[in-house]
Every structure is written in structure tokens, then in C-alpha cells.
Specification:
The chain has 26 helices and ten strands. By secondary structure, it is of the alpha+beta class. Strand 4 and strand 5 form a beta hairpin. Helix 4 packs antiparallel against helix 7. About 30% of the residues are buried.
Length: about 700
Amino acid sequence: MTASTTRRERVRSSWSALFGVVPDKGLQRRPTEILRIVVGLLLVSFGALNASTVSPIEQSVHDVVAQLPSGAITALRWLNTSGALIAVGIVAIAAILSRRPRFIGVVALAGTLTYVLGRALDSLVGAPHDASGPIAGAAQFPNLRLAVVAAVFYAAGPELTRPARRLMVILLCFIALSLASVTGGYPTGIIGALGLAWMIAAITHLVLGSPDGAPAADTVTADLVAMGIDSEDLSLAPDQHWGETAFIGHDLRGPLRVAVIGRDATNAQFLTKLFRFIWMKDSGPGLATTREQQIEHRAYLLMLAERASVPAPRVIDSGPVGDHGDVVLVLREQVGDRLNDLDTTRISDEVLDSAWRTVGALHSIGITHGAICPSGLLLGGDGTISFVDLADADGRPSSDAPVLDQVALLVTLASLSSPERSADAARRALGVEGLRAMQPLLEATALPRATRREVRDAKRLTTALSPLLAAITGSTPEKLTELRRVSPANILLAAATLLGFYLLVGQFTKIDFATTFNDAHWSWVVVVVLLAQLPLFGTAMALLGAVSRPLPMRPVFILQFANKFTGLVGGGVATMAMTVRFFQKQGLSPAVAVSSSLMTSFSSGIVQFVLVGLGLLLGDTTMKLGRSGGNGSSGLTGKLLILLAVVVAVAIVLAAIPHFRRRLMTLIGPHLRAARTNFTTVVSEPRKAVQLFAGNF
């Protein structure tokens, strides 16, 4: 019994080491995923552009692999079929046994999206061909089996142990080799399949998050011990800087803050600088080429602040740790409460003045903060405001950077107290000239991202602060030219409008008006035109009966005219959009519009069923049921059913993830309650039922 138990434990330990799941270290949205998406997209584009032709180099590679010994070909064939299925099954079992809905959802979502996009690419990219024409038996682009297997492996990688990741990489290499030797695959198709899988897995990790890149607290504690720092109760900090992982804890001397910077921090800095250069024509702070330089620059700014007695964290130590090349920065945190956690009654005028003194002291040594917000400021026991960190600080700021810091502090303090008190504190600290310099930059769009994220009513506060500063300085800044931003929605709306007019003109050109009205009796034309509008009264009455709140008849009747026009091009989707917008203008929620449209359609179906049934019973009519449609329509129906099944499967997977389920219910919960209230009110009132069915009749 003892030997059997020991053997079972040894097998379980070996399985956990090989196909185990890493400890849950929280979710990270890594900047590295953005680079992976770009690289994957480039690989897919390269493969798609070259998939229709076979270059001499590709043909040579294919011929060399195809001449492998028969035993190797047989083994590769098995890996390409049964081996891939077994590996995917093992990953699925590991995901189920981990009891992490996030793990299961990420794997299922990545595999499903890769299959759908792979089928779409297969229909868009032609089959490979050479000088003689299409190549018989050539593999599709991309190879769906390789793409789906690779997507499952890439998506599951952050959750699995390192040996499992290495085995998956080796298996993918053999599967790719087998494609060239067994199924007639070429390097461009293999590269495109791997690029598609890598891109989809990176998108999934970027949206849902992954545990990769976040060091465990125990690992960081051990690294600190190696540096001679005995920390206790180390845990993830509530505020995280993009690209790094921050921990808080304490030692015998007080609170600690540990910033762990890895490859993600370097990528985040590069992407931020690139985005600001392209989007804002401002590259921001200098770019550090290595993680050590990034940490050393940050520590240097903190030590300059310490020398100038600026209330900020004190540097204890820094240096590389671990086997992954990570670098840590250990700081002694200031003791106090974050301003975003304080009651507004504790924000006195002395606190406001202390905040301005702290920012002024930092600016006096040529450093700007760059991310002033309520959570970035601490209130100490002696009433002093100190900085939580200087992660976004700049030691060589532009001429506008100090003023932008002041604007951010002005708006931050206004959100914590009032615009009047914040403006008075700024006047006491900066004087009239300082306020006059702030006026041109007092715009919500000029605030740092951290300030805009935490101060939700920043635009209202800047609007309220502007006249206060103008009253103090006695000067009003020049009115800025209002920007008209062209959003993607505007572009799509313009394109849809042009498409609608094009389709309408096409409809009118098919009508020969001269022939149609050549022998018309104009008296009857007038009568028919008037009678043709009567159904609009019926549909308007039915819509009034489907809404619990009383609405005037005239705008509802005009809505039916608008729906007839938009329905010529957009069909039911355009009609639904028009109805939803109409109800929003009437002060009702979109859920009421959807529920009322469903009730109108349902009641219309009942009326039509009754009328057709009476006609069949009372009339002398025979009816034969037959099946119509060709293979093309049935094929399209099958594809639509497959697409619907995929959408339902993805929705079920997302609903199984607690985080997304809570967000989904938070988003649609009020609309569902509004729709239920509207439905119960309409059903309980006989007058509404009469309007609903009589209008459809």
C-alpha cells in the first residue's frame, strides 16, 4: 500500500511538473502582446500575398522535406493528425482540471476565432499555382489544423509550466514539418498559419489578460532577500503602472514599495513614445535602451527629489534579479493616506497649499511629475502632501510640461474640494502671472491620461475653472477654434449614406415611369395613393400599443414614413436603428424600442396566421407545400448556421467567465429590466392589446 501510494504521488508529481498549471498570479495586459499582434499580422500578410505563387526557394524546401525516409514520413503523418489531437486534448484536460474559467475561455475563444478567420482567409486567398496552372493537392491557406492547434498552444502557454511550453513548441515544429512533407504545404502557408495563431492568441491575452509577465510575490520576496532586504506581507499594489508590476509590503523600518521591471516595461515605454510621436507629435520623455537604464534614470530622479527635500519615496536599492533579466527598484514609501481614499471634509485649505508647495518643490529642481492624480498623492499625518512615485517623471521637460502639471493639480484639487477653493489655492501659490500662464492650457484634452482616468468630470471642472481664473487674472484667453474631429463613426455614416443613395438610384432606374403611367386613370391614382397610406396608420397604432408610455400619434406616424424610406436600402436593421433612435428622442431606453418591435412583429404574425387560416378554411383553395431553392441557397444557409453556432459558442464561453459575466450584466441589466417593465405594462392593459392587434389587422 505504501509503495503504491508513493508511486501514485510520484506519477502525480511528474504530471504536474510536465503539464501542470502555474499559480494564479493575477491578470496582466502586457504591452508585449501589442508587438506580437503586429508581428503576427505581418506574417499573415506576407503569407497571404505569396500564397498564390510558389517561389523556387519554397519548391526546393518542399522537395527536400518530401524526400525524407518513409519512417520519418509516417511519424510526421501521425504527429500531424493523432499527435495534434492528443496534444490539444491534453491542454483541454489541463484547462478543465485547473478549474479556472478564464483558462478555459481563453483557449476556446482563441481556437474558435482562429478557425473563423482561417476560413475567411481561405475563401479570399486563391490556391497556389505555378507556370502550368493550379497545383493539384496543394494545402489551403492558412492550414486550419496547424493554425487552430498553434492558437490553442499559444493561448494556453501563459497558464502552463515551462516544460509544457517547450513540448508544445517542439510539437508545432514537427507539425509544420509534416505539412511540407505530407499534405503539400509550402513555407508561406505555414508561416501564415503560425502568424494567424500568434496574432489571435495575443489579441485574446490583450483583451482578457494573462498571468504571464507577473512575478509571484514569493519570488520577489526571495529576490529581495538576496539583495539583503527582509520584506514581509508583500502583495500587489492597488495601483499598477503599465508595463511593470508594483508590490507593497514592509520591513522592520517601515512600508516598502517594490517596482519589478521586465521586458514589458521596455516595450511599454517604446509603444508609449511611438504613440505620442505619431498621435500627438510629442515623443515625451527620453527612451531608455535597457531596463537597467530605465531603473537608474528613475532612481536618479528620486534621489534628486530626496536631496531637494521633496516629499517622495526614498530609494533603498535597485538591481537585476532572477533568471529572466528583470530589474527591481526598492523604495521606502511615504506614510499617509491617498487623496482618492479620503473624505472631502479632510481636504482643508492647508492641504491644498501643501499640495502646491510639493509640486513647486519638484519643479524647482527641473523635474515634472507627468501623472498628477488623486491616487498619486498622499496626505501625511502632519498635513504634508507627498508623491506616491515618480514613475512618469521627466528630468528634461519641455517648457509647457510644468504648466501642464499645474493644470493637472488644479483640476485634481477641484475634484477633491471645489473649483473656487482650488482656484484660490492656485492664486496663493502661483500668483496672477502663474494663473495667466495656465489659462491657455486649461482644457480637458491637455490633462494627463492618469488625471482623465480618475477625474471623470474633468471637462465640467475645466469649464468651471476657466471663468474663475479669468476673474482673478482680469484677462480672458483667446477663444480656441473648436475642433471637429472626424471619428470612425462619421466615416462609416458618410459611406453608408453614399451607398444608400447609390442603391436607391439603382432601384429607380429599373422603373419605366413613362410606360407605367401611360394609360393610367389619374383620378384612381390619387385615390390609390391616399389609400396606400392607411397601413401606416395601422403600424403606428400597433407601435403605440407596444409601448407602455403614452406617445403622440403624429411623430409615430412620421416615423413609419421614415421607416419605409430607410427600409428600401437598410432593411430591418435600418428600421430597427431608426426606431431605437426615435424612442431615445422620446426619453425611452433602447431596450423599450427592441421589446416593442418584437411585440409588434409577434402580434403581426399572429394576425397574419389567423387571417390566412380563415382564408384557407372558408375559401375554395388547395395548397401544396414544396421545397424551393438551389444548392447555392442551401450552402449559404449552412454557412450562416455555422456562423450562428460559432457566435453562440463564443457567447457561452464568455458568459462562463465570472469577470465578463458581471460586466455583461452590469451593461445589459438595466436594459433587461426596462424591457421587462415595458412588456408587463403592455400585457396588463387591455387598451394596449387592442391597439396592438387592431393596428396590425
